[in-house]
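Our platform keeps sequence and structure together, in a single record for each protein. Such a record has a labelled line for the sequence and another for the backbone structure tokens. Nothing more is needed to write down the fold, since each code stands for a local backbone conformation. For reference, a complete record is included directly beneath this paragraph:
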Amino acid sequence: MEPKIEELKAKLKKYGQEHLLNGYDKLDDKHKHELIKQIEDIDFELINKLYEDTKKKPKTNEDKITPIEYLDKYKLGDKYKYYENIGKKAIKEGKLAAVTMAGGQGTRLGHTGPKGTFDIGLDSHKSLFELLCDNLKEEGKKYDVIIPWFIMTSRENNAATIEFFEKHKYFGYQKDKNLFFFEQGELPMVDTEGKILIGEDGLIKEAADGHGGIYESLVKSGMTKRMRNMGIEWVFIGGVDNCLVKMVDPVLMGIAIDKNVTVACKSVVKANPHEKVGVFCKRNGRPNVIEYSEITDEMAEARDEDGELLYGESHILCNLFKVDAIERMGAEPLPYHVAFKKAKYIDKDGKLVVPDSPNAYKFEAFLFDAFGEVDEMAILRVKREEEFAPVKNADSAGVDCPSTARELYKNFKLKNK
């Protein structure tokens, strides 16, 4: 072990990160091994570049933003059945899989454990995971198939997630046959001097690399290869916190197949012109999502001749991809965005630092940054009350919280009895 430590010390000195081994001798063997692996896995050149980028002034945005075309699911007329039949055929042939992004914890909801294990307060006391699974099983019965389910966890919640599924007998699925778990990537957090942080456990403090890491994680974990071996051609990717997510949608699938696009996304119309959501657009002629902070008041309020908002299609993290598109997008990391966060850490003297204001940089990629890789994509507007009931905040927030999601879920089930 010692020669390896000397080798790592030389590497750390090169990048000014020698402090990462300060507490090494105090760790037990398991944690020593973990810390060494973490250091070996770090791309120090990338971390240096990301830190240097935090010091640069944001570039003046000269991108040309224009509206994007979309289809309204309930204004398709005769085309509805046409698209639906194309999609149904592909689903019956076993060409669809579902991916759920479930790397987060339920902290903001006052819940201890993975977010997917959270009970939104229904009489059944079903967790978010079980609600999503129920939907997949119901849809599978319609088409006489089992929809393979891939769940992206994080290093932080992977063991607890798998344990939860074991306890509930995988909700009728079979692990490693039609239910698969894989972990999302992580990046070290750095302080305002560019030093990588050490957490209270003596290990490097890492944070999930954002939902944009999904492509790389699917490829690196071997999941896309597994999908191909199973004959899967299309993958629906959604979040665990939307209890109304419709992962199996023959209309969306039919549109994607008919229009020969490799990406098809769902949208809901903005609740009002200034709702703080990202919206679909064309950026320099290619599909993209523009953040609400980038939209001027004039753009936000602009309407077409039918009175519809020109930039009104909210990105709700409900996206369908061809497997080869995922592989292409996962070949190279996406650009990273920086977030300034509060983070506890152990300083170079071994003391715990508990900040009362943001003190560390976290780097994350956004899933929609890959949309510019395709020439065209299909956007399908759906009804918010039928497909979008997110659980992001505690009830005290009054919006996108357990009580609002519960009401939407109950109303939807009542209406579709």
